[in-house]
Each structure stands twice: as structure tokens, then as C-alpha cells.
Amino acid sequence: xxxxxxxxxxxxxxxxxxxxxxxxxxxxxxxxxxxxxxxxxxxxxxxxxxxxxxxxxxxxxxxxxxxxxxxxxxxxxxxxxxxxxxxxxxxxxxxxxxxxxxxxxxxxxxxxxxxxxxxxxxxxxxxxxxxxxxxxxxxxxxxxxxxxxxxxxxxxxxxxxxxxxxxxxxxxxxxxxxxxxxxxxxxxxxxxxxxxxxxxxxxxxxxxxxxxxxxxxxxxxxxxxxxxxxxxxxxxxxxxxxxxxxxxxxxxxxxxxxxxxxxxxxxxxxxxxxxxxxxxxxxxxxxxxxxxxxxxxxxxxxx
Amino acid sequence: xxxxxxxxxxxxxxxxxxxxxxxxxxxxxxxxxxxxxxxxxxxxxxxxxxxxxxxxxxxxxxxxxxxxxxxxxxxxxxxxxxxxxxxxxxxxxxxxxxxxxxxxxxxxxxxxxxxxxxxxxxxxxxxxxxxxxxxxxxxxxxxxxxxxxxxxxxxxxxxxxxxxxxxxxxxxxxxxxxxxxxxxxxxxxxxxxxxxxxxxxxxxxxxxxxxxxxxxxxxxxxxxxxxxxxxxxxxxxxxxxxxxxxxxxxxxxxxxxxxxxxxxxxxxxxxxxxxxxxxxxxxxxxxxxxxxxxxxxxxxxxxxxxxxxxxxxxxxxxxxxxxxxxxx
Lengths: 303, 328
Prior knowledge:
The complex is a heterodimer of chains A (about 300) and B (about 325).
Chain A: H1 2-22, E1 25-29, H2 38-54, E2 57-61, H3 69-81, E3 86-89, H4 98-106, E4 110-114, E5 125-127, H5 130-144, E6 150-155, H6 161-176, E7 180-186, H7 191-204, E8 210-213, H8 216-229, E9 236-238, H9 244-251, E10 258-261, H10 263-278, E11 286-288, E12 291-294
Parallel strand pairs in A: 1-2, 1-3, 3-4, 4-5, 5-11, 6-7, 6-8, 8-9
Antiparallel strand pairs in A: 10-12
Helix pairs in contact in A: 2-10, 5-6, 7-8
Chain B: H1 3-30, H2 38-63, H3 71-87, H4 93-116, H5 123-142, E1 147-148, H6 152-159, E2 161-163, E3 172-174, H7 175-193, H8 195-205, H9 207-212, H10 217-243, E4 245-246, H11 254-264, H12 276-295, H13 300-327
Antiparallel strand pairs in B: 1-4, 2-3
Helix pairs in contact in B: 1-12, 2-7, 2-10, 2-11, 2-12, 3-4, 3-5, 3-10, 4-5, 4-10, 6-10, 7-8, 8-10, 11-12, 11-13
């Protein structure tokens, strides 16, 4: 019995030793656990798929909540002891994670940021290009209403890069195809504020044909304003994020469309490019993970 | 005193060290390649410094049969104040490094005055109030926005490392560990040698008896909450140095980690009983567990579950131990 156990143990030791000698290890450090948040679950799934394809070992870790900055620092620190080769990280707090990312780079680990850009210079950011996503929404609006129609844009918090990029992308797309942007108002990502803003816009522009809201929460506020004005059938509403409640709204025929980010790609591109950095290849400073238009046809996938 | 009683007394005192050594043995077995390396131990020391500071203050408070729920928020407030003085204010470093501890003492005194002057029924209530209030103040002064890029001397205590490369690659002694060591030795001496230190135990054991025997209970309580605030402020200074930033989310839930370490360390929740060595053991047990599970790539959900059971187990062992002690 004892000999058997010993044999088993040594076989295991050899197995792990050989595995360790060949496969490289990539750490995916996310802001929050995949269990409970479909967004991070998709990032994790994409990373797993790519790791399996490339034949590398993948370690996925995340703090229990997105506010637990210290836990994420400790997790990365502990993995650096194990000499990981590459790391794709979504920092819970870009400033606080700065020193540990620097330490990883100094140790020769290939590092990329996914989803959220960090503060460390020269590290590639892999995530959603919000301007491109908003242009996608604008393009959809252009194709579905007559040229010269009145349209409105509801902005998020415009001092944030995401809010600015979405508002800019939509405005450019809508004006370039010959639509008439009659109102641009900030509603701070908030449903109630969007509803109030929309009520005011409708008062001055009764002929409005479409609204781009920079996120779904605001788009849902717009829908409520249109409902109470009895104009929901005349105005098309396009949001951003493709949240589950927005998908429901699209299926119910209230919102017309939304724009989905592609978290699977964040995981895929993250693993692939972190390894490229490790191997000394140069990669772009910003890599777009792409956006998808969500309409009645595919909204069921986002419920 | 029989030999059995003597053994029990030693177990009572040093049992926690045996538990820590046992954990180190198990984790070494599970992760032979990386766990027992100097580099990993440097990491563990860095990771436990914040909780070590908060737990030491929490011990003093719990010894008086009190509780301080505000330490996590006070840590964040102290951190944000010193970080903004450094980055926004551009104050000289030799003033900035004192801001954290001073803000901590001020917050601690505020808790103490609330307790002694307002005669609130239990410190739970006063410090629950300041848990919210101090977090709110932290967000107000920072606008809810993180700041980063501290000057090097301000970072020194939290981030500097003394290289010990003769021990092995990556082996360092974090300066924060030295700060922890000084604080623990200092408080240990204070509790045993100073008259006020012994008064702290007396107040927790039986406040009425303490009052009758001429101890100024209110003054002891003020001192204890001020010290607890001081250590929270030190925690803020160390964490700011370690992360090179101040972020208003810092220390959320840290009060629960500190209470857990004190309880695992064998202190009585009803006051009058607990040691500095026990708390250090409690801090190490939690730090080793998290580090070991991180190395094993175990989900943080399991870490929460395990730490929960360890708290229950630690107190249960304490109950058994005391029952056995009564029998002999």
C-alpha cells in the first residue's frame, strides 16, 4: 500500500514537473468573479477558449467584490511568486494597481490591460472602442429613418472618457449621414434624469424621429417619457450596453436597438496579446474588442 | 498547580503559535515549490501589515469590552487626507507622514467622546455612526476620486524593502513589517508594564469594580479609542505607500477582518482577556490562509467561507479550553 502511494506520488510529481516545463502560464485578473456577473463570465470563457487553443495554462482570479482593491493586489503579488509568464488584468483601481503592474513588468511578465485602462505607460489596452460602437448605433438609425429627420442625443457623464466617446461617435455618425441633431443633453447615465430631459426635448421638438441614449438606463428613461407622451410608435430609441432589461425592452417592441460590448473578445485577445508581449512582439497600443448591434433579431441572446 | 494545569496554561498562551506552524506545514505540503520561499514570506508580511495595524487597535478596544466598527473608514479618511496633502497640497513630506496618524487619533477621540460624554449605550452605536460618517467625509474631501503618485519619502514606510538577497532571490524585509513589529512590541510592553495598560484589562473585566478601585474609566476609554484611531491612521499611511495612491474605497470591510483576527487570537469579546501575541497569531492565520489559497488559485468565495468557519472553530476551541480549565 505504502509503495503504491509512493509510486503514485512520484508519478504525479513527474507529471506536474513535465507540465510545468512546457506550458506557459497566463494570469487573467478580473475586477469581479465570473460567478454572478455575466460580463466577467464571458471574459473568462473567452480567455479559457484561447488558452486551450494556444496550449497554455490559464489562472483566473478576481476579488470577491469589485471594490476590494487590496485583495486584487495580493492575488497578483502571490501569482508573481509563481513566475507566471503573462497577465491580462482589469484593474479595480488603475492607480492602486499601478505599482504591482510595474513590478510584474520589471519581472519580465507580459502585461496587457483588458476592459479598463491602467495608468502604466506603454501597456496595451484591450477593450471596447466606444466611439466605434456609438457610430454603429448612428448607422442603424440612419438606415431606418428619412434623411433630414430630427434626432436627439442623450449624453452620459461627459467628463468621463466613455461618456465623451459615445456622444462624439453618435454625433459624427448622425450628422454625416444627413440627419438633423436638434438636441444634445447630458443625463448622467441616469434613468430618471433621462426621462426628464426627454420630456423637455419632446416639448420643443414634436417631430423627433429618433434618440440615441449613451447607455441603456437612459434609453429606458426615454421610453417612459415617450410612453407618457403617447409617441413611442413614432420615435426610435437606441441605447448602449445591451443589458438584460434592455434586451427585454427590445423584444417587447419598446426600445429599438442597443449596442453590445464583446467581453468574450476581451478574454481571447487578452490572453493572446499578453503572450505576444512576453515573446517580445510589438502590438498596438489600443486593441478594439468590437461591438455588436442588438435588435429584435438577436436580443434574445442578451436576456 | 498540577502538571496538567501548567500544560493548559502554556497551551493557552502559545497554542496559537502551534496553529500558525501547523498551517505553514500544511501550505508547504500543498505548494512545495513556492510557499516556503523568502520571496513569498516577504509578500505575506506586506499583505498583513494593514490588518496587523487595525487588529492591534481593535484588541485594545475589545479588551475594554468595546468594539470599533469605524476603523476601515478611518483608515480611508486618514489615507485620503495625507494623499491629498501630498499630491494636491504639495506639503513637505515630514508633515504629510504625520497627517495619517493624527487624523486617526482625532477620529478615535471623536469616538471616545461620543461614548463617554454622550453616554451612548454601546460603542457599537457610536462607531457604527462614524463608520458611515467617516466614509462620507472621505468621499467628500476626495470627490470620490482616487489620487496617485505620492512622493517617495511618504511612501517609505508602506513600500520600501530592505534587500536580503543573501537569503535567496527576491528575499526582502518590508519596512512595513518593521513598523508592525515595533507597534506590537510597544503595545505588549505597555499592556504589561504601564499602570494604564493594566487598567485597560480591569475596565474590560469589570467596569464597576474598576471605577470603585479609583480607575478613571472614561479616561481609559478615551485613550483606548484614540489609540485604535492612531493605528487605523497608521494603516492608512502604510496602505497609501504600498499602493502609491489614495482611493476612497480603501479599507471597506476591514473592520471585520480586524475583529476576526482578534477573536481568532483568543481575545474575549466580553473584555478583560486577550494578548498581543494572540492577535499577531490571528493576523498571521488569516494572512497565511489567503496567501495559501491564492497560490492554489482558489476562488475568493472559498476564502470567505473558510475564514468564517475558522472564526467559529477558534471560539469553540476557546470555549472547550475554558471548560477544561474550570474542571482542573
